[in-house]
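Researcher: We're teaching a course module on how sequence relates to structure. For the next exercise, students receive a sequence and then see the predicted structure as C-alpha cells, so they can try to spot secondary structure elements on their own. Here is the exercise chain.
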Amino acid sequence: MQVLSADDVRRLVPMRAAIDAVRDAFRELAAGNFVLPPRQIFGDGAVLVMSAYHTPTGTAVVKKIGIDLDTVPAIRATVIWTGGGDQLVADGTSITTLRTGAVVGVATDLLAPADASRLTLVGTGAQAPDQVRAVLAVRPIADVTIVGRSADRATALARQLSAEFPEVRFTPSSTLGDPHIVCCATSTTTPLFDADELPSQVHVNAIGAFRPSMRELPRNLFIGSTVVVDQREAALEESGEVIDAIDSGTLRVEDLIELGPALSEPPVRTGRTVFKSVGIGPQDWAIAAALARAQVQRSTPLR
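Model: And here is the predicted structure for the students to work with:
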C-alpha cells in the first residue's frame, strides 16, 4: 500500500497534468465508462462519501470528506484508490482542491474567450489558489482581482500568488472590476453579486456552493446564459443556485449542459457562460489514477 502526503500530490501531479487528467475523465464519463453511485451525505453535509468505478480499467476510488466551515482548513479528506491488486491512500484535501481547480480549468478552456486576460476571484479560502492556478494554465491572464470578506486575507493571498506568478498583477479589491472570467469559491448562502455587476460577455465558474441551502450566483445570471454543469443529476440535488433558478422558472432542467458531452460537442456560446460544479467522483479518480501512474513511472519510494 502506498501512502501519499499533500506534498506528494502536488509534486507528482502539477496543475496542467491535473487538467488533462480531469478532461479525459469527463470524456470517459460521457462515454458511459464509469459506475457512479450517488454521493452519500451525513449530518447535513458535515460528512460526505464519494466513489467511482472505471469499468475499462477495473480501478476505483473512494473519498471520505469531513467539512466544518468554521475551521481552517474547512475540508479534510482521505482518498483510497485501488486497481490491479494495488492500493494507494492519499491526502484527500489536496486532491480535492487540485481536482476542483482542474475541472474549472477544463470548463474555462471550453467556454471562456481564448484571449481572456482579466480574472476576478471571489473568495480567499483553501480552494482559492487552485482556481487561479487552473485559469492561468489555460488562458493568458495578466490581471487578477481578488475579492474577499477580509481585506487582510485578500492582500495575503495576492502576495502569495504574486510570488508564484510574478508576471501577473494581483490586486485586492472590494469590487469585481471588469473581468473576462470570474471564479467563485465561497461558502455563502446568499449570492455574491448581481448579474448587472458583470460585463455582458463574461465566463463565470462557481464551485463553492455544494448544499441546496448555499448560493453563490444570482438567479438573474442564468437568464440568457449558457449553463454547463459537471453532472446534471448532481447539480439538481446539491447546487443551491441551480435548484433556486429552476424552482423560480428562471432556468429549465433541459437548459443544463453536461461538461462531458460538451467537450465533444461544444455549446453555442452566448454573451455569458456559467460553469457550476458540485464535484463528482471521476474527478477524484482522475487525480488518483494520475498519482498511481506517476508512482510507477518515477519509482517513488514508499513513505
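Model: If you want an answer key for the exercise: The chain has two domains: 2-96+282-298, 104-279. The longest helix spans residues 92-111.
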